[in-house]
TrEMBL record:
PANTHER family: FLAVOREDOXIN, FLAVOREDOXIN-RELATED-RELATED
Domain of life: Bacteria
GO molecular function, one term: oxidoreductase activity, acting on the CH-NH group of donors, NAD or NADP as acceptor
Family statement: Belongs to the flavoredoxin family.
Name this protein carries in UniProt: Flavin reductase family protein
Species the sequence originates in: Dorea formicigenerans
Keywords: Flavoprotein
Segments forming domain Flavin reductase like: 9-149
Pfam families linked: Flavin_Reduct
Cofactor: FMN
Length: 188
């Protein structure tokens, strides 16, 4: 038997993405965005409304970065979601994290987050089925601490995922299979 739930945003896990931009004065702004995904291999889609300071900054600068939040910085990641850049100008400074300029776009890289996608702003979509920022990934960097033999080791990233059912965060750490290989066992 199945139980009917009073929820519509039931996809789990949802990534915890840190979207970083520069404000007008050059200071760093970061927001927590669980509503984001890869639209194509090199295209990011973020479901964000135009009222977000981050969206205003993206449109003004034509760029943003998307970092994967990790368990070690869960408190800071959550803070970036509960505090508005429209209300608190020094939101990033309050976090205690540090940033450096991205190599390929006019946006900051949050140094403490292990993986960062540098994105060029393509367009803002707003229609009856949602709204959001579309960006082209032009560079991806990873901290050396999460690399093994030149590749990212996701067990070292300790990425966190958002649980929309209970509003919790969970670590994504253990590899359980081989994509595009394990299912071949069932092919005839």
């Amino acid at each position: 038997m199945r139980t009917k739930l009073k929820i519509t945003e039931g996809i789990f896990p949802m990534p915890v993405l840190m979207v970083a931009t520069y404000n007008e004065d050059g200071s760093v702004n970061v927001m927590n965005a669980a509503w984001g995904t890869m639209q194509e291999r090199d295209t990011v889609a973020l479901n964000l409304t135009e009222t977000h300071k981050t969206v205003q900054n993206i449109k003004a600068r034509g760029a943003f970065t998307v970092s994967i939040a990790d368990a070690a910085h869960m408190v800071e990641a959550d803070y970036f979601g509960v505090e508005s850049g429209n209300k608190v100008g020094d939101k990033f400074a309050r976090s205690g994290l540090t940033a450096s300029k991205a190599e390929a776009v006019d946006a900051p890289v949050i140094n403490e987050f292990p993986i960062c996608l540098e994105c060029k702003f393509i367009e803002y979509q707003n229609n009856e089925y949602g709204c959001g920022v579309i960006g082209k990934v032009v560079n991806v960097t990873a901290d050396e601490s999460v690399m093994v033999d030149g590749k990212i080791d996701m067990s070292k990233v300790n990425a966190i995922a958002f649980d929309p059912y209970t509003h919790g965060y969970y670590k994504v750490t253990e590899r359980v299979g081989e994509a595009f290989r394990d299912g071949l066992k069932l092919k005839k």
